[in-house]
Amino acid sequence: MNRLKKAAILTRLIQGLRGKNSWCGETHVQKATFLLQEMTQVPLGFDFILYKHGPFSFDLRDELTSLRADELIALEPQAPYGPRIAVTDRCDYIQGLYPKTLSRYGKHLDFVADKIHEKGVAELECLATAFYVTALEGDKNSVEQRTEKIKELKPHITRANALQGVKEIDRIMEEIGHYLN
After folding, report:
1. pTM for this prediction
2. Which of 42, 77, 80, 116 holds its CA 20 to 30 A away from the CA of 106?
3. Among candidates 39, 28, 7, 13, which has minimal Cα distance to 180?
4. What is the DSSP secondary-structure string of 28-91?
5. Distance between CA 158 and CA 122 in Å, rounded?
6. Taken in order 141, 180, 67, 46, is the CA torsion positive or negative?
């Protein structure tokens, strides 16, 4: 997918998160993009690794920096917290170039924004890591096995939160087929 199409999708994702009153910091955009790409199969082409706070893409971080440089997104400082990401009016032009792409992936974008908009950073880490483990290990592993794998990879996540993340991912994955069809 070319860079401008990615910009159209990413800015629409940010709009979707913000439209649902998400905090929409970089962690939110990272985890939303991971789920959008890996769970709903939107071919953005970002490489994700399991990092400090769950799946993370350095390529996506670079792309967000480029979007800021192109004045398609902006950071809104929120002292004493980190900044929120907002789109600028310039994104309307880019999105206008790709109505078919945005229409094709509109349900995907809405689905992801709907599932994560109200989550805090710790919840996002757990949920995205649960999907990472489920996708990596396949759903052949039990809820208990995937919970233990999360604990092994992320010892700071409580067992209860890991279990909740796995169960929630399983529910979301059951819903996705009905929602996107």
Report:
1. 0.95
2. 77
3. 39
4. HHHHHHHHHHHTS--------EEETTEEE-HHHHHHHHHHHHTTSEEEEEETTEEEEEEE-TTH
5. 11
6. positive
